[in-house]
Amino acid sequence: MAIPLDYPTLRLIWWALMGVLLIGFALTDGFDLGVAALLPFVARNDGERRMVINTIGATWEGNQVWFILGGGAIFAAWPFVYAVSFSGFYLAMFAVLASLILRPVGFKYRSKRPSKTWRTTWDWALFVGGFAPALVFGVAVGNVLQGIPFRLDSDLRATYEGTFLGLFTPFTLVCGLLSVAMLVTHGAAWLTIKTEHGAVRDRARTFGSVAAIAAIALFAVGYGFVAKGGLGFSLQGAVDPAGPSNPLRAAALATPGAWLSNFHSHAWMWIAPLLGFVGAALAFIGIRAGKEFPAFAGSSLSALGIISTVGLSMFPFILPSSIDAKSSLTVWNASSSHMTLFIMLLVTVVFLPIVLAYTAWAYKVMFGRSSVGALSTNPDLY
Hints:
Number of strands: 6
Oligomer: single chain
Radius of gyration: 21 Å
Strand content: under 5%
Low-confidence stretches: none
Strand order of the largest sheet: 1-2
């Protein structure tokens, strides 16, 4: 079978699609995580907390699909990346999954008993289900940027030499807190759109404003770590983008400051970090001014810019190794076969528009503000 797209092009397309899925997760399920993390702080009584929960109650399950799609795409398009990252980050992934399990359980069980202690306990469980994944995802990205302690032997067996506590360094904690601030800003902007005017909305504006400023500051601190801290890897010698997928053929080297080289070579890439800063600033201004949709657009642009900055800075690396640079996984040496990438692209071209169209329709049908008054008249609400 003749494949109309060459191997390097398909690899680039799937690298971009992986970024699209991660950004889609941040833009949709991201505000769910942000709302859950804000729950105990923006709502002070049972009615207010039920109102906040129901701002995401109708859509959170669909939004979570982006996370599943992202994991599936990594498994299918970049099997070496999936194998190394999911085994190396096993405890971190377990913590994320355990936290995410708290969300559906919390939604379903919270209102089963009228006890204040019972409901408060589940409210804090929902907080953990929002805060912990946001933090761990950011910490994981920080670890990828500074390199993962793994090596591949001659049989392509991966050995991870890190520890769970070793995942937490000053830089990775900055990345984790940036992720939390970014998603809390996004969640606060969502609450200003979905809640009725009142105390909850005002508190969401206050916390969202603080989170937006924190996102700007932490993004700047992260840039300082990368620029001054000497983070980065580079490929040495000639690279064959059409070559076979063999991670052992990478000639990589830890190169301080290399994560900024793509931006110096391609000036247009600076659009990404600029969006990260400008989007957060727009979210802050919109939240303070009571402009709901500009605030949400700003938080969305900020997430888009921050995530794109990471991907563009690392290209073509996907998972660099901090202890054996030649074991690093890149766009060119860790993908699935030419045929596999092409068949998956055909499936994506058919089904992704359907998913997007259905998602848009679902949001249109379920659009509207959540209110305390509706809790006593609508039996379908949490």
